[in-house]
Design a protein that fits this description.
By secondary structure, this protein is α+β, with helices and mostly antiparallel strands. It contains 12 helices and 12 strands.
Length: 339
């Protein structure tokens, strides 16, 4: 979020938390004096912070954030074009822009991080996306001749002042404490000390997209969600999601002609798990539960809040409930009788 005063979200957060520098305090104070709406926003944020209602998102993975620097927010497309053109004899920028737009990989505000590398995939390269990488991994992948795109905070990279604008660059070389890159913002090469580059790279949780024309050694690396805690309601929700996941799988198999059999038989289309969820062994249920649990944790780590929408009131127990419910989940009374 940037205001018309060009004050970054990071600067506003520091001000609200009382962590601003004197220069930031002066800048924000002047802006508040000249803009009533901006003043109201700051006052509201200060109140929320005081009441403990502002959530920290330091553990959030920015998967849905946009790589959005360079003219037209094209930094990722230009990076992919650079790789395809330099190493594979690819086409012109307009071709790739049109292709990215047609496939909804490129949005008006930029390229979502989870869509980076789609053009490389389309043109025959094997692509992997990974967060929380290290400089050592950069060196390792360059030695294997992989092509690498990294996402950095643009302001931190250029002026040592984070501005919450993500920017895609191509990693060319890591040597002697220096990282050389292709920067689409200048359509040329730049170099930075490893320390300065990593400061900017940290803002994307050290996100990389790497690709090869000869295939990659596949090593699974799911996003670590072990640091995400779920409340009791969400923990209970995992069982419902696990059961539904089994139902979706079984319905698809049934539509393909599969049926129950004591042993899996790909010729007779028989499978021992074509039974109700409740009849599965605990070991078989574990797979569905683990998938559900980690999916919920991933959604929260991506920055989304999961909460039940309470829009009705139960007169019997005094709890708020969803207006779509017929019975109160807290006390069991009929809600229609209590409305």
């Amino acid at each position: 979020m940037k205001t018309e005063h060009s004050i970054s979200q990071a600067a506003i957060e520091r001000y609200v938390k009382g962590q601003s520098s004197l220069e930031e305090i002066a800048l924000i104070t002047r802006a508040m004096q000249g803009d009533e709406d901006f003043c109201k926003m700051i006052t509201l944020l200060e109140g929320l912070h005081k009441d403990g209602l502002l959530e920290e998102d330091g553990g959030t993975i920015p998967m849905a954030s946009m790589a959005a620097m360079s003219q037209g927010n094209l930094c990722d497309v230009l990076c992919e074009q650079y790789i395809l053109k330099d190493y594979l004899g690819g086409g012109e920028a307009d071709d790739y822009i049109g292709e990215a737009l047609d496939n909804c990989w490129l949005k008006e505000a930029g390229t979502p991080l989870h869509n980076m590398g789609r053009l490389l995939e389309r043109h025959g390269m094997t692509v992997t996306r990974k967060y929380e990488c290290s400089v050592g991994e950069l060196q390792e992948k360059l030695e294997k001749k992989y092509r690498i795109i990294a996402v950095v905070d643009y302001g931190q990279l250029w002026s040592n002042e984070a501005d919450a604008v993500f920017h895609a660059v191509v990693i060319l070389q890591v040597m002697d404490g220096i990282i050389r890159i292709y920067d689409p913002a200048i359509d040329g090469h730049s170099h930075y000390t490893i320390e300065d580059f990593v400061k900017a790279w940290n803002y994307s949780r050290n996100y990389l997209v790497y690709a090869s024309v000869e295939g990659l050694e596949y090593i699974p690396h799911p996003i670590d969600v072990s640091d995400v805690d779920l409340d009791e309601e969400l923990m209970e929700l995992t069982e419902a999601i696990a059961e539904n996941a089994h139902e979706v799988w079984a319905e698809k198999r049934r539509n393909e002609g599969w049926k129950y059999g004591p042993q899996r038989d790909d010729i007779l289309l028989e499978h021992p798990d074509m039974i109700p969820y409740c009849e599965l062994t605990e070991g078989e249920k574990y797979y569905d539960r683990d998938l559900a649990l980690n999916t919920i944790r991933l959604v929260k780590k991506l920055g989304f809040n999961i909460s039940r929408r309470y829009t009705a009131y139960c007169n019997a127990c005094g709890e708020f409930v969803s207006s779509g419910m017929n019975f109160c989940p807290n006390c069991g009374s009929t809600l229609s009788e209590n409305k």
